[in-house]
Design brief:
Helix content: under 10%
Shape: globular
Number of helices: 0
Strand order of the largest sheet: 2-11-10-4-5-6
Largest sheet: 6 strands, mixed
Radius of gyration: 13 Å
Strand content: over 45%
Number of strands: 11
Distance between the termini: 34 Å
């Protein structure tokens, strides 16, 4: 089970931090990350990180503004979002995968999903 939290409303240029806690079957999953889905858009990859933290991947649209730290002791992953833009408005979903095929979440459909949390960036 993945439990996401931290969404909200922020002005353009502001920051937000999303958090996701893994439990049960998702405990110890190798890859953790985030996707998002804007109104009328398909769900898209945002960022992911492998177990050791040495491999992170970001969508081009968020590089340099978002980071995706994880805490393996607490089994959590966060999404730290800075310099937010109105186009970042979306429902954000936490995701996890055992990484049996690859540790690059951009290339797979993750096995586990959390509920979405809304992020709204006003201009």
């Amino acid at each position: 089970q993945l439990q996401a939290s931290g969404g909200g409303v922020v002005q353009a240029g502001g920051s937000l931090r999303l958090s996701c806690a893994a439990s049960g079957r998702t405990f110890g999953t190798t890859i953790m990350g985030w996707f998002r889905q804007g109104t009328g858009s398909e769900r898209e990859f945002v960022a992911s990180i492998n177990w050791g933290g040495g491999r992170t991947f970001y969508a081009d649209s968020v590089k340099g503004r978002f980071t995706v730290p994880r805490n393996n002791v607490k089994n959590t992953v966060s999404l730290e979002m800075n310099n937010l833009r109105p186009e970042d408005t979306a429902v954000y979903y936490c995701a996890a995968d055992r990484g049996l095929i690859t540790d690059d979440m951009r290339a797979i459909r993750p096995e586990y999903w959390g509920q979405g949390t809304q992020v709204t960036v006003s201009s």
